[in-house]
Amino acid sequence: MKNVKFYFVTVILAMTFILYGCSDDAGKSKDSKNETKQRYLIAYAQAELVNAWRVTNQKDMEEWAKKLGVDLISRNANQNTAQQLADVKEMLASKPDVLILSPLESKALDSVVGLCEKANIPLIVIDRKIDSEPGHGIYKTQITQSHVISGRLLAEKAVELLKNKYGAPKGKVVHIMGLPNASPVIEAKKGWGQVMMNYPEIETIAVVEGRFTEKGGELAMEVALKKFSRGEIDIVHTDYSAMTMGALNTIKKAGRTELLGFVLGEGGHYKAIEAVIKGEIARETQTPPYFGELAIKSALSILKGVDVSVRQKISIKVFDSSDKESADKYLKKIRNNDAEF
Fold first, then answer.
1. What pLDDT, in 10s, does the model give residues 46-62?
2. Of the N and C termini of the chain, which has fewer Cβ atoms inside 10 Å?
3. Is the pTM of this model over 0.90?
4. CA pair distance 79, 109, nearest whole angstrom
């Protein structure tokens, strides 16, 4: 009888040990799964990779995803709105934790909000805007730069140049435009207009599309120079550095050197800064392509339930031919780091 009791107690203890051990392993397994889930998947819908700004932007997003331990998938729409919508749908099907969108056009890409709502995937919009307002439902935050301010800064420089040239704010302007429905173009035009409404004798005589590329800038400037003879253009302003450099190439090739020093641009690529130092560009605003840190960190905050600002801004820089020393200092800094912006 004693032997039977001893055997019974031994079995009970053994079963208790096994059950406790299993329970502990299960807890560890659950914890392990939670730890694994912390490596998030973020999708990035890139508008285009047609110039150095976009290539730098893409590289920056990838580098920050790696630094912050995030898996990143990305698609390039190549300046095609329909393709970008298809890219978004494809990536949402992969069930990322967050979608980051750099929209090609404001109105056409607004439907992405509905797609994210349906998929229950938080949306962050960077660089350009869509028509919907951030901070409502699935659309969490908008990270942009003030192209309105950039447009104002370029317009103010145009006024200064024309006052110096004619003794009064009057003259004729050629605008080499990026894409008409891109929010940076729309906003820069708004900023330009806010200044120019006070100067009715400064007239934009031509708007030619350059599609944000150097070749586009060259062709657009060719169109303008064929239409307007020497003395009929006072200012050339563009929406991006590559187009500015293309316009300068055409101006030099055509021997229209009277326009050198009367060119204004946005973007801040190092080649444009070099042209500011040479006196060929009067003013260049820089809208930096470095969105990676703020965008990825915002995504992680959202996933952890931490509130982020509905609208976030990345500061712009200004390089002016009247302050070549500052431009040269910045140029040396970025080129020493092998950066283009």
1. 999 999 999 999 999 99
2. N
3. no
4. 12
